[in-house]
Write a structure and sequence with these properties.
With 177 residues, this protein is an alpha+beta fold. The protein has one helix spanning 47-116, and strands spanning 5-8, 23-26, 31-37, 40-44, 144-148, 151-155, 165-167, 173-175. The protein has a four-stranded mixed sheet, with no helix packed on it. The protein has a two-stranded antiparallel ribbon with strand order 5-6. Strands 7-8 form a two-stranded antiparallel sheet. The relative contact order is 0.05.
């Protein structure tokens, strides 16, 4: 197989006509192309070209990066402003809560002072009707106490065993369970 290279003006460069591994030089544009398969080529770039390309696009890259940084700074400033506003509102709410707690404590102290001074104690009402000395039910296991002429009586249903109770030497009622 022969080594093939093509050359000519860039306008006549047709990637579909190139053979695999063939070079094509566009002399008027100072470009060199390499064919991998018909229709699929890549332009070969030399180090001098890379420097020129970078120089040509540096302003564009700097402008893009600057815009991105400005956007990030604006977002950061917005977030800072939001955080500061939220912090200020939190301080305001905290101050209101402290004020409300202080007022509640003042009202509570005032109520205690007024209660202790008897301000909420009204005059004695009329005496009510005398109630019974006690109520006794006749349910199994139920018992009650009744005071008769200054004596304490244990009352329990007929036919049941009285609970184990006694009065000790100190006068205390003792229930043994």
């Amino acid at each position: 197989m022969a080594i093939q290279n093509r050359r000519g003006p860039v306008i006549k460069l047709d990637p579909n006509k190139l053979l695999p591994a063939e070079f094509a030089a566009a002399l008027d544009a100072e470009e060199l192309h390499f064919c991998f398969t018909p229709g699929e080529t890549k332009q070969i770039v030399f180090s001098e070209d890379v420097v020129e390309i970078i120089d040509a696009h540096t302003g564009e890259v700097v402008a893009t990066l600057t815009a991105d940084v400005k956007r990030a700074v604006a977002d950061a400033e917005s977030a800072t402003e939001y955080a500061n506003t939220s912090a200020q509102k939190a301080v305001e709410k905290s101050t209101l809560a402290e004020l409300a707690a202080s007022k509640a404590n003042t009202v509570a102290e005032d109520l205690v002072i007024r209660k202790n001074a008897g301000e909420f104690t009204g005059p004695q009402g009329p005496p009510g009707e005398a109630g019974a000395n006690g109520i006794v039910t006749t349910m199994e296991g139920q018992y009650g106490f009744e005071i008769r002429e200054g004596h304490l009586y244990l009352v329990y249903p007929d036919g049941t065993t009285p609970p184990d109770m006694r009065i000790d030497d100190a006068g205390h009622l003792i229930l043994t369970i």
